[in-house]
Design goal:
With 774 residues, the chain is of the alpha/beta class. The chain is built from 28 helices and 22 strands. The strands form 6 sheets. Strands 1-12-11-10-9-8-6-2 form an 8-stranded parallel beta sheet. The radius of gyration is 27 Å and the shape is globular. Bound molecules: glutamine and zinc ion. Glutamine (GLN) binds next to loops. Pathway: Amino-acid biosynthesis; L-methionine biosynthesis via de novo pathway; L-methionine from L-homocysteine (MetE route): step 1/1.
């Protein structure tokens, strides 16, 4: 049933105003101004006052971009991370920075990154742990708890920003991570149960809310994204306790959830004594109706109706068809917003002057998403005809995307439809393959190799930049890259490594490099999204059906192989990782995009094999990252993700050896899926963990070969022969030596040759020691 009220009746029902607000705005600036200011401050090139001035000016610009909203977020801005900001607001500083000299900002950066400006050489503070913010690529600084944790209110930063926003004429809505999510995100450094800190934490929150009320604040956005995850009963109780304690604090709380469905926490969320609830109406659209029922008649329901996680235009007419009846039902109790903070999208599409005009017309960055919300807001409050032109323009853009031959490639769609189980099957099981590979590859026990990249030197970067600017022609660029490859091969031969790599000199980035050569991908110039601190990523935009016009890596690998008698490993990025590090389509399931990528990379695998490359590594660095927030959805994801890998990898002869690489070490809960990938060799990150991480491979009787990293590439330290031998002996207690490889944790592109050579020399030496063990 489509309820299409006439605009008149809508206006009558909604004489009262539906409010428009925002949950957070990207802080880095349209030109990454914050990044450059932070880095200049850390290098001592800018004073604290200059950094703070840049920050204030960014806040001012951001609020201006949000002008006219009924409420603008304050406290979403951060000099590093909003969770770390909150730790400071709550007086929860790790003991190791307390009492150090310098300003509060110096302490802040010491926790954030181990040092502030002018601290160089000081190794006395280690940085706080960093981890992913739910299922995003944003990383926060993990709050640290211990038996000694005492909270105490330190509200000045937030209060000052509120004053700033108010002085600029905005209706400020402070944004805080809520107490339960804060405790859940943190980690105890001793046996302390985080939950036991709740009673101590709540009075500090209550005091903070009181101080906000004194500033004339009406609404506070209190973010509890933990409500979209599976919660143990004691954590559900914590929500009841917390919000009972915060009721009557003098401000209205908008309990804010995002990134997913409330599921079994829906009743809990609706029952808490707050003034309003925000629901992610992109991911939890089907929960809106029940939420309205359960919410009662006195609470505001804020609906996140524009996707804060992707870069696509919203289909405004379709959205309004759904939203108008809701507006009619709720009247002024309805608010609208993006689904989550806009932190996760780039700032402004207007910066993109080089992007293809048609593709550009399909996109919306943060600024454009706010514009969409203004249109929806106006349509709801004043009728669709008040924004007829905008709606028509939106429809035209959407139609162009729906029908564009650049998006839809019947050949690719047919190939995906024709996928069957046989495509993902190797010809024989691992034991038969291993025998054939042993004969063909003739490798020693404990074969040594590296993960792919060698140092990306200044010269390589300069050459690439000059090539991009047109100062270097393609032939000259290729010559320079070939020289780099030759150098890398010579070094590896001199070191005595067993399986060589070409070194990836020609690659800027392991995803972008492939995206640039595949049809169906577009690239922005300024589409930066904060990953952590001053680090930003520019995810490529997967907009259409994926195909591979021609071979992408074969010539480089072939050239590298021609330089040596040793085996040269071909090097590819796998479909799941390409998918997880891109902005992906919203007009088809992720699984379909992944299968398309799988078919394209499969062609590359087969071309490499045909070109005489006998070992091919397919990196799946980001497979784990794609796991859904709720465990019960893991199986479905792992199913298509692993199948995509198998399709990519398994079209080769038994004697061709497939490697995969993963830059993490938590396999406990996904070991079955990893085994099902059935790579002949998997290399993983283990050097920091004394090989305990191999226990799960042992317990699971993981059948194939493993290269547990023995060289921590994140550290400039040179690992000794003894260290690496010790690690590998520990590994050999868990995995038979016949199935072990010796390799670093990850690629070496961020290191210097002067570090890599002695480290790999020791690594090769350690393999010799191990062989003598036998
Ligand atoms: N082959 C890639 C490299 O060595 C792998 C990088 C990664 O796993 N992140 O750089
Ligand atoms: Zn890695």
């Amino acid at each position: 049933m489509s309820l299409q009220p006439s605009n008149n009746s809508l206006q009558q029902r909604n004489k009262s105003h539906i409010r428009l607000h925002n949950l957070g705005f990207p802080r880095i600036g349209a030109r990454r101004e914050l990044k450059f200011a932070q880095e200049a401050f850390w290098k001592g090139e800018k004073s604290e006052a200059e950094l703070l001035a840049t920050a204030a000016s960014l806040r001012e610009q951001n609020w201006q971009r949000q002008a006219g909203l009924d409420l603008v977020p304050v406290g979403d801005f951060s000099l590093y991370d909003q969770v770390l900001d909150l730790s400071f607001t709550l007086g929860n500083l790790p003991a190791r920075v307390q009492g150090l000299d310098g300003s509060e900002l110096d302490q802040y950066f010491r926790v954030a990154r181990g040092r502030s400006a002018n601290d160089s050489g000081c190794n006395c503070v280690h940085a706080g742990e960093m981890t992913k913010w739910f299922d995003t690529n944003y990383h926060y600084i993990v709050p640290e708890f211990s038996a000694d944790t005492r909270f105490s209110l330190n509200p000045d930063r937030l209060l000052a920003q509120i004053e700033e926003a108010q002085a600029q004429g905005h209706n400020a809505k402070p944004v805080l991570v809520g107490p339960v999510t804060y405790l859940l995100l943190g980690k105890a450094k001793d046996a302390t149960d985080s939950l036991s800190l709740l009673a101590q934490l709540l009075p500090v929150y209550a005091e903070l809310l009181k101080r906000l009320a004194e500033k004339g604040i009406e609404w506070v956005q209190i973010d509890e994204p933990a409500l979209v995850t599976e919660l143990a009963p004691q954590w559900q109780d914590a929500f009841r306790t917390a919000y009972a304690a915060l009721a009557g604090s003098g401000v209205k709380l908008l309990l804010t959830t995002y990134f997913g469905q409330l599921g079994e926490n829906l009743e809990l969320a609706c029952s808490l004594p707050v003034a309003g609830l925000h629901l992610d109406a992109i991911n939890a659209r089907e929960e809106v109706e029940t939420t309205i029922e359960k919410l009662g008649t006195d609470k505001v329901l804020s609906l996140g109706v524009v996707n804060g996680r992707n870069i696509w235009k919203t289909d405004l007419s379709v959205l309004l068809d759904w939203l108008e009846p809701v507006a009619q039902q709720l009247g002024e109790r309805l608010w609208i917003a993006p689904s989550c903070s806009l932190l996760h999208v780039p700032v402004d599409l207007d910066s993109e002057q080089k992007l293809d005009a048609e593709i550009r017309s399909w996109l919306a960055f943060a600024e454009q998403k706010l514009a969409e919300l203004r249109v929806i807001h106006s349509a709801l409050n004043h009728g669709r005809e008040s924004v007829a032109a905008e709606l028509a323009e939106n429809l035209a853009a959407l139609n162009s995307r729906r029908t564009s031959p650049r998006v839809h490639n019947p050949r690719v769609q047919k190939a995906v439809a024709a996928i069957d189980a046989s495509l993902g099957e190797r010809q024989s099981a691992y034991p038969q393959r291993a025998a054939l590979q042993r004969d063909k590859l003739n490798l020693p026990l404990y074969p040594t190799t590296t993960i792919g990249s060698f140092p990306q030197t200044q010269e390589i970067r300069k050459a690439r930049l000059a090539y991009r600017k047109g100062e270097l022609d393609a032939v000259e660029y290729e010559t320079r890259m070939k020289q780099e490859i030759e150098f890398a091969v010579q070094q590896q031969e001199a070191l005595g490594l067993d399986v060589l790599v070409h070194g990836e000199a020609e690659r800027n980035d392991m995803v972008e490099y492939f995206g640039e050569q595949l049809d169906g991908y577009a690239f922005s110039q300024f589409g930066w999204v904060q990953s952590y601190g001053s680090r930003c990523v520019k995810p490529p935009i997967l907009f259409g059906d994926i195909s591979r016009p021609k071979a992408m890596t074969v010539a480089w690998s072939q050239y590298a192989q021609s330089l040596t008698e040793k085996k040269m490993k071909g090097m590819l990025t796998g479909p799941v990782t390409i998918l997880n590090w891109s902005f992906v389509r919203d007009d088809q399931p992720r699984s379909v995009s992944c299968y398309q990528l799988a078919l394209a990379i499969r062609e590359e695998v087969q071309d490499l094999e045909a070109a005489g490359i006998d070992i091919i590594q397919i990196d799946e660095a980001a497979l784990r990252e794609g796991l859904p927030l709720r465990r019960r959805q893991w199986a479905e994801y792992l199913n298509w993700a692993v199948e995509s890998f198998r399709i990519t990898a398994n079209g080769v002869a038994d004697s061709t050896q497939i490697h995969t690489h993963m830059c993490y070490s938590e396999f406990n809960d996904i070991i079955e899926a990893i085994a099902h990938m059935d790579a002949d060799v998997i290399t993983i990150e283990t050097s920091r963990s004394d090989m305990e991480l191999l226990d799960v491979f042992d317990e699971f009787h993981y059948p194939n070969e493993i290269g547990p990293g023995v060289y921590d590439i994140h550290s400039p330290n040179i690992p000794s022969v003894e260290q690496m031998v010790k690690l590998m002996r520990l590994a050999a207690q868990r995995i038979p030596a016949e199935r072990l490889w010796v390799n670093p944790d990850c690629g070496l592109k961020t290191r210097q040759w002067s570090e890599v050579i002695p480290a790999l020399k020791n690594m090769v030496e350690s393999a010799k020691v191990l062989r003598a063990d036998k």
